[in-house]
Amino acid sequence: MALPPSVHLLPLEFEHRGRPATLSPVAIETDRGLLLVDTGLDSTVDQLEARLDDAGFGLEDLRLVLLTHQDVDHVDALATITDRVSPVVVASTHAAQIIDGREEPRGGVGRGRPTPVPVDVELDGWGTIDTRAGPARVVPTPGHTPGHVSLYFPDERLLVAADALTADGGVLQGPRPEMSEEMELALESVGRLAELDVDHVVCYHGGSVEAGSDRIAEIAAGE
Fold first, then answer.
1. What is the pLDDT of residue 125?
2. Which CATH number fits the domain that encloses residue 161?
3. Four-point Cα dihedral 207, 213, 215, 220, nearest 10
4. What does pTM read for this prediction?
5. % of the chain at pLDDT higher than 70
6. Residue 111: pLDDT band by 50, 70, 90 thresholds?
7. What is the mean pLDDT of the chain?
8. pLDDT tens-digit profile of 139-174?
9. What pLDDT score does 1 carry?
10. Considering the domain boundaries, does residue 2 fall inside one?
């Protein structure tokens, strides 16, 4: 099952601990421009531009950047992007306090200090963004980090899970224990996602996977 034509996967390749790895931000068309979900690393900005160009867009088309949480691989490119264009930056209240420099990052792999950038809109819970793929529902999915959020498109049965779920070899998997601040809470969030009507998942680590609510429920149950 292909992604909806208004949803664009933007795979970014980099090297992690001497091995190739891929990040999977997503751009979604809206009537006012693009919604970008996570930014990748500062070192992958050129790739981000190339992927946007492949989809017929440029950085200047970004109108909204939603950061699912504050980890470096999700926000590092934000400073470079906002130096060049002026999208509205959105994040949960928990994440915003680290992204804008009010709080220090918590410990853990990948949780260094990117250049602080102001967050324009802080989310305290669920929210909705209008897109050409239908309403995009912001779903709180804490556990990986306290303020982690995912994005759900009910009209397309599509879940952009960020780090609430992962994928390996095209198989949907749970959050990584070694990368999750509160694994029990992370699995509770997976249980919440299992209640949604999902046919397709995009994971930030693992990309696009044809898997849905049944598989998410299995993960929540520890299977």
1. 86
2. 3.60.15.10
3. 100
4. 0.95
5. 96
6. low
7. 94
8. 999 999 999 999 999 999 999 999 999 999 999 999
9. 61
10. no
Q: Give the chain's domain count.
A: 1
HEC readout, the chain? CCCCCCEEECCEEEEECCEEEEECCEEEEECCEEEEECCCCHHHHHHHHHHHHHCCCCHHHEEEEEECCCCHHHHCCHHHHHHHCCCEEEEEHHHHHHHCCCCCCCCCCCCCCCCCCCCCEEECCCEEEEECCEEEEEEECCCCCCCCEEEEECCCCEEEEECCCEEECCEEECCCHHHCCCHHHHHHHHHHHHCCCCCEEEECCCEEECCCHHHHHHHHCCC
In a domain, 113, yes or no: yes
Structural domain of 210:
7-220
Whether 209 is in a domain gets the answer yes
Residue 167 within any structural domain of the chain: yes
Q: Can you say whether the dihedral through the CA atoms of 54, 48, 94, 174 is positive or negative?
A: positive
Tokens describing residue 34:
């693009």
Distance, in Å, from the CA atom of 92 to the CA atom of 139, rounded to the nearest integer, reads 10
